[in-house]
Sequence to fold (140 residues):
Amino acid sequence: MFTYFLSPKGRFRRRDYWFGILVVMIILALGLSADFVFRDVEMIPTGTPGEYTLEPAPLFLGLAGVVILWPCLAMGIKRWHDRDKSGWFVLLGMVPIVNLYAYFSLLFLPGTRGLNRFGPDPREEERYLRTSEHSASSHN
Fold:
């Protein structure tokens, strides 16, 4: 299961992508929380209303960012594969305005049905596994 989120090969359905994003958000929240608890990080007003900076620089949040970098790229690549697009489309996330389409597409648009050039449809694989488990248990 762990390697499922680390490998850029294959396809990733929306449900799994959402789950991966949730795990990433939890890791980032834990990193930031650790900075506030263990390093006495404070939110300092910058002088512009509603704008703050963190002092000292959040070390644990930075480490969390490094830890999640590869899984985020791998999940994005696999999600683009599910949409039958090259993994290089993950770079659209770095282009202002265009990144809105990219994230909307990854989060809300369904993948291609059936086999595509990146592998079998993960929904069909899951249905097959569920059916084969059900038929194996009913034979016992």
Observations:
- The radius of gyration is 20 Å.
- The chain has one domain: 9-138.
- The beta strands are 42-45, 52-55.
- The CA atoms of residues 26 and 129 lie 30 Å apart.
